[in-house]
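Quick one - inputs below.
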Amino acid sequence: MTAGTQATTPATAGATEKRTALYGRHEALGASFTDFGGWQMPLKYGSELAEHRAVREAAGLFDLSHMGEVWATGPAAGAFLDYALVGKLSAIAVGKAKYSLICAEDGGIIDDLIVYRVAPEQYLVVPNAGNADTVAAELEARREAFGSDGGGVSLRDASAETSLIAVQGPNAQEIVLSLVAADQADAVTGLKYYASLGLELELRDGGVPVLLARTGYTGEDGFELFVANEHAAGLWDAIRAAGEGRDLIPCGLAARDSLRLEAGMPLYGNELSRDVTPFEAGLGGVVALKSKDGDFVGRAALQAKKDDGAGTTGGRRLVGLRGLGRRAARSHYTVLKDGRQVGEVTSGQPSPTLGYPVALAYVDVELAEPGTQLEVDLRGKAEPFEVVALPFYKRER
Amino acid sequence: MSKVQSGLRYSEEHEWLDTDAAPAKVGVSAVAAEALGDVVYLDLPEVGSELSAGTTCGEIESTKSVSDLYSPVTGTVVEVNQEVIDNPALVNEDPYGAGWLFTVDVTAEGPLLSPEEYASKNGGEL
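Output:
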C-alpha cells in the first residue's frame, strides 16, 4: 500500500512549526499532529469519523488557536476596513460579525476572514492561520495608504497571545451555558448566529474574560471563544468538564475539514487563492460593489471581472459534486464532461454524514447548474458525479 | 505506537502476509491503518483474479486519503473478506484479525520483511 493522494494539508515549514498554548493538552490526549499553516495542530485524537459524528450528534471541542487575531481600533476603524476589505464592515452592528475577504489589487483573494465588531470603534479581524502574517502586514500597509497617520486607526496583531477554542454541535449551547453566570444565561441563549458577546467566566483561575461568538466552521450550532493564552488550558479543561455527560469529545483538523466540506464552506488554499476571484468562488455577495461608495483595494479589478461575467456567464464556478459511485474525488483531480477536461476538484472525500462522496470543484460556468452530469478522473477511471446545490449538509433547526 | 504482529511477514508497501494460513492471507499493517485514518471503502481483487507480486490489486480509501493496494505475492485470489468490504472500519479496529482482506493461492512471493525489519523501518511496536 502506498499513498496515492495524501491529506490536503498545505505543506509548511518543517521543523519550525509553532505550538498553541494547548499543545500539552493535545499531547496528553494522544493526538496525532499535522503541520497546518505553520502550526503543529492536532489532526485527530482517535477516530476522525467519531469526532465528525460527535459534532453532528452531540458536541466537539476544537483548538483553533492557530487562527490570527488583528484588532482595528479608532473612530475610523469601520471606514478603514471598508477600504481594506471587500465588504461594508462599517455597517456591522456592534456585537455582530460578518464574513469577508481581503483581496489584492487584481481582485485575487488574499484570505477569507471573519470580522467582529465588538465595540463602536473596535473590530476584531480573524484571518486563517497560514495567512495571518500576510493579512496583518497587508492591513498595516493599507492603513498607511488609508490616510495620513493611518487615518486615526490603530492596528494590533494579537495572534501570538490569543487562543481560540470552539465548541460545536447540538449540545454546544448547553455546555457553554453551564460555564456562564446565571445572570448571563439569557444573553448566551439569545446570542444569534454571527453575533458575539464579551463576558467573564468564573473558572478555577478566577474570572477569565472571553469573547464568545456564535460562529463556526462545521455547519452545526456552536460557539468560538477567544481567550488570552494564559487562560486557554483552564478554559479547555472547564469546557471538557462541562462536556462530561454531554458527549463532548476533542476534535482535530481532520474532522474540522470533513465538517466544513459537508457544510459547503470554502477552505483557503483549496477553494480560495490569489488566482480566484470572489465571483467564481460564489462569494460575489460578499463584495460590496454597490453598497460602498468609496474606493477599496481591488475595487476596479473586481468591478471589471464582474462586468465580464466572471463566475456567472464566463470562466469557471465553484460547485458541489456528489459522487454516484463509492469512490471519492480528491483535491486536484480533473473534472470531465464527455471525456473533455472542464474543471478541477479542490476538496473531496467520502461524506461521513451522507454516506456518499462529496467534492467541491471549479467547473466551466455553463456546467455549474445543479443536475448537470459530469465525471471525475479517479486515478485513470472516469466516475460519474452530479452537480448539486450547496451545502451538501444542512442541519435541522 | 502501532502494533507490528509477530508470525507474519510484511511488504514495503505495508501489506502483511500470513503463510501459516492455507491459503495465505493478506491484510494491511496497523502502522498503515493508523496512517490512513478511518477506512471507508475498499476495492479488492475479485475471486479467481491473478495477482502479481509488487503490482496494484486494489484501493484502500479513508476519509482523508486514498492509496493503492499492492499484492505481496503472485498467485490466484481464493477468497475475499466480504465482512471487511461491508464494514471497512475493521481495517482500523482489527487489522491483523477481522480486518484481513483476501486469501491467495501463492505461486511466488515478492520481497518481504520480517516483523522486526518492518517495525524498525516503520516505527511500529512488536
